[in-house]
């Protein structure tokens, strides 16, 4: 019972404090920030060991850095025939060696990348949109219609590591419904809505809009600029809209704002260091969260749960559409966006952001 409680606590902290800024990155730091490092084994749970003696060192006291976490948001449509999970939101959180700050940034879902061959899924490799790495990797030969999300994560992780040059220490995959439940379990979040956002999916009362040929019908929920307190469905609905000025890049910014708002709520309530209070969060999440990593989540939570929201820097990587004529192929990062990844690997993140202040995202 104690082991189960500690595992639940760790998952909750992963999905809150750590999920939003890399505070679940899953290994003891060492060496430089570059390279893919050892591939963490995908697992739907970690096996916690006995609690340390009260007189001994706290959990995770040996964890240093740098650490990098990959967070993936997946839209579950299991009722759709032959459905496969796509990486609808791809975020990375990097915590430097001192563990005193973190950088959170997104990669465009339509970023054109080289996806490596993945024999486990029968995938031969190719150059296409990043979002497809999850679906290609999730294919289990002989099990059509039963995608393996953990396997899909592994191919996405390898793809992201290859593109960014960062070692991915651990990660999490969470469904849209998991975000909804998470925010509700926290009592909602406060977000500064930075532009008028009209929902494609929800009515003002929270009900889903009626699907019709070519789109949806019915009244639309509208989020006006300013500080707003959002419930679970509202926070998720606001953060997932991309048919607005700025397109998917605006949506990436809203993803980051939502995650930092979650961090703030956890920090204000002191949940990161109070296992019993996190039980309600995990109860809401259920199987909507998949953790992939090496170190025990309880160690990571204790080691990094003290980071305040002010320690997180949100970074928006600019990009542009690529294609021939009217044929859209996807997105590519601009020189400034690629330069940020180079600076991150070299440990020059702050000087680079000082030289490119437009990359900083304000909450």
UniProtKB/TrEMBL annotation:
User: Which Gene3D superfamilies does the entry mention?
Assistant: LCP protein
The record, for InterPro entries, names: LytR/CpsA/Psr_CW_biosynth (IPR050922), LytR_CpsA_psr (IPR004474)
User: Does the keyword field hold Transmembrane helix?
Assistant: no
Bias (Low complexity): 36-53
Signal peptide feature range: 1-20
Q: What residue stretches are annotated with the Cell envelope-related transcriptional attenuator domain?
A: 86-267
Keywords per UniProt: Signal
Domain of life (superkingdom): Bacteria
| Residue ranges of the region described as Disordered | 31-64
> Which Pfam family would be a valid example here?
LytR_cpsA_psr
Q: Which family does it belong to?
A: Belongs to the LytR/CpsA/Psr (LCP) family.
Provide the protein name: Transcriptional attenuator, LytR family
Provenance organism: Micromonospora nigra
